[in-house]
User: Fold this.
Amino acid sequence: MKRLNLDKTYVVKPGDVERQWYVVDASGQTLGRLATQIASVLRGKHRPQYSPYEDVGDYVVVINAEKIHTTGRKLDQKRYYHYSGYPGGLREVTLRRQLEQHPERVIEHAVKGMLPRGPLGRQMFKKLKVYAGPEHPHGAQLPQIMEF
Assistant:
């Protein structure tokens, strides 16, 4: 009778991970649904060697951020807040105005809220690249198109 050795556990090391580059077209996509998929890829949950305490995720390039879609009346009701630290320094911007001025920040804000807090989440967030238009400077990395 052959005995199985079940006491060996595979532990992911940062050098073992081969990172891929993906391009996501945000045209017509719903903001929250797209953000969850992007956060999952950044964390590495789509990989078999996923580990919650290591950064095993891939790079994600989002294009056409200005063409993102939202449901309901979020364009006028959703607000983004920024506080300067000074008295009276609380600023608020609606989603509609944010999409007009800085459409990249909308997707970045949504994805950042879905990543872990702390150094690991900040490291994962650095692998997200968002661009308002269809052009991006990451052609040399040969990114694959990712459909959701």
The first strand starts at residue 21 and ends at 25. Residues 19-70+99-145 form a domain with the Ribosomal Protein L13p; Chain: A; fold (CATH 3.90.1180.10). The beta strands are 21-25, 59-63, 79-83, 90-94, 128-130, 144-145.
